[in-house]
């Protein structure tokens, strides 16, 4: 029973050890910066749209993450304890910046890969 509890708590413990600025903090650094600075930092946007004196730039980040079933199982004739193999999934994060007068005024993000 202790091993099962340890396997469930391990991902939580590792996540708690993660350090560094959040996505919101990293993107906030672009507020007030020029469109050129934004493109220099994030690359060419996927799409742009202009309306009512504002310009919107859409960026997308994709990454592959490993996921696994945290439940161990018993396998084979001697009931050997085993952990299921990891699967891999692609996640994405869409980030939209709003610019007015060629300066970043706000941003928003959406997606399961936004972290």
The CA-CA distance between the termini, in Å, is: 32 Å
Supply the number of helical segments.
Answer: 3
What is the average of the pLDDT values? 82
Low-confidence stretches: 1-10
Count the beta strands: 6
Report the helical percentage. Answer: 25-40%
Q: Structural class, from secondary structure content?
A: alpha+beta
Major β-sheet strand ordering:
1-2-5-6
Describe this structure in words.
This protein is of the alpha+beta class and 115 residues long. It has 3 helices and 6 strands; from the N terminus they run H-H-H-E-E-E-E-E-E. The chain has helices at residues 2-17, 23-28, 35-42, and strands at residues 47-51, 54-67, 73-75, 80-82, 87-100, 103-110. A 4-stranded antiparallel beta sheet has the order 1-2-5-6. The protein has a two-stranded antiparallel ribbon with strand order 3-4. A hairpin with a 2-residue loop joins strand 1 and strand 2 (54-67). The longest helix is centred in the first third of the chain and has 16 residues, at 2-17. The model is unreliable at 1-10 (pLDDT under 50).
Compact summary:
The protein has 115 residues and is of the alpha+beta class. Helix content is 26%, strand content 41%.
Write a concise keyword list for the protein shown above.
single chain, about 120 residues, alpha+beta, two-stranded antiparallel sheet, 3 helices, about 25% helix, disordered N terminus
Present the secondary structure layout.
Elements: H1 2-17, H2 23-28, H3 35-42, E1 47-51, E2 54-67, E3 73-75, E4 80-82, E5 87-100, E6 103-110
Antiparallel strand pairs: 1-2, 2-5, 3-4, 5-6
